[in-house]
Write a structure and sequence with these properties.
Length: 364
């Protein structure tokens, strides 16, 4: 078949399929009956005259996309944040076995970030304790029991109130009843605890010859996705391994998050391959900001962190990052770029609610 005849064949087949699809939608005749019939008639060259000269396959199909049904319940409208431009501080800290030292060191880092203009400060995963199953029970704090039982969160509350900054407090081991959690606390500018995220996806991996770690030996998985309204916008919280699960990020975007924060401690095996990749993927898929904060690397520790704390923009661009040593990163966030990128690539209007759905169980 030459090019001209093939073009005519494809055009007539496509338009005939569009007409039959309309019939299928109106009378519910099985679609496979139409498609088989059309194909056989097209092969034989016995196609009927076109009835809808102005019909378009893309127009007919787009009317059935139902993008508003791709997320159930429908995605919330992006809220107007209290401020649209501000500086974020990512505090990549060294962690020791001395808990008091770790707390004082984190406080100093938050003060330094605020002095440099940060309105939001993020700490690493497990910043008050060595990262090990042996250490979690020893260093765990009862956050709900108050400041005496939780000196780490007491410090975060005090410094957030004194400096008038919002703090995503990395994570610490939390003791609650007879269970342990890997928990991130968020404090507002009045020092009030406004959100507590317990790591949902526990880090249980086994890469022979590289790394084996099972958080589930000591920790319990959290049960609640966490989105919180702050003085610097709506933030979705995940901890380290949570970043691997795109469904959680999609859910946060559907709840109107401007920024996703992932305190994390990727290791020397998966860090070089996946740490930046996952951050950029979560940002570009959902067209919002993603911030991560890691502990600094300690080659002598039982668990060696990759480092490389990073801020990613809503187009998947790296806005600020660092290497593996101690450092405080100060970077600019401008939420107007979210609207710009969503206008450039209108993914929300193009989702195929007729083919797939993400169900937010807690909202449905």
């Amino acid at each position: 078949m030459n090019i001209a005849r093939r073009t005519i064949f494809n055009t007539r087949l496509l338009n005939s399929y569009s007409i039959s699809l309309s019939k299928f939608q109106s009378n519910k005749t099985p679609l496979h009956s139409y498609s088989s019939s059309i194909f056989n008639r097209a092969i034989s060259g016995n196609l009927p005259p076109l009835k809808h000269k102005n019909s378009s396959f893309s127009t007919i199909m787009s009317s059935s996309f139902k993008p508003e049904q791709a997320r159930v319940p429908p995605a919330l409208q992006l809220p107007t944040p209290p401020i649209t431009k501000y500086k974020i501080g990512l505090c990549q800290l060294s962690v020791t076995s001395d808990k008091s030292r770790n707390i004082a060191h984190a406080k100093k880092a938050i003060e330094d970030a605020a002095q440099k203009g940060a309105k939001l400060v993020v700490l690493p995963e497990i910043w008050n304790s060595p990262y090990s199953n042996d250490s979690f029970p020893e260093y765990a704090e009862d956050i709900d029991a108050g400041s005496n039982a939780s000196p780490s969160t007491a410090m975060l509350s005090e410094v957030s109130r004194a400096l008038k900054v919002t703090i995503v407090g990395g994570s610490i081991p939390e003791h609650a009843g007879d269970r342990l959690y890997n928990t991130c606390c968020v404090f507002d500018t009045d020092g009030k605890l406004i959100a507590k995220h317990r790591k949902i996806h526990l880090f249980d991996i086994d890469i022979p010859g590289k790394i084996t770690f099972k958080e589930s030996q000591t920790l319990t998985a959290g049960e609640t996705p966490t989105v919180v309204d702050t003085e610097v916008g709506r933030i979705g919280i995940g901890i380290c391994y949570d970043i691997r699960f795109q469904e959680l990020a999609i859910l946060y975007a559907a709840r109107g998050a401007h920024l996703l924060c992932y305190p994390g401690a990727f290791n020397m095996t998966t860090g070089p391959l996946h740490w930046e990749l996952l951050q950029r993927a979560r940002a570009v898929d959902n067209q919002l900001y993603v911030a991560t904060c890691s502990p600094a690397r300690d080659a002598g520790a039982g668990y060696v962190a990759w480092g490389h704390s990073t801020l990613v923009g809503p187009f998947g661009e790296i806005l600020a990052t660092t290497e593996h040593g101690e450092e405080i990163i100060i970077a600019d966030i401008d939420y107007s770029s979210i609207e710009l990128r969503r206008t450039n690539l209108p993914l929300e209007k193009q989702r195929r609610g007729d083919l797939y759905q993400l169900v937010d169980v807690q909202r449905s």
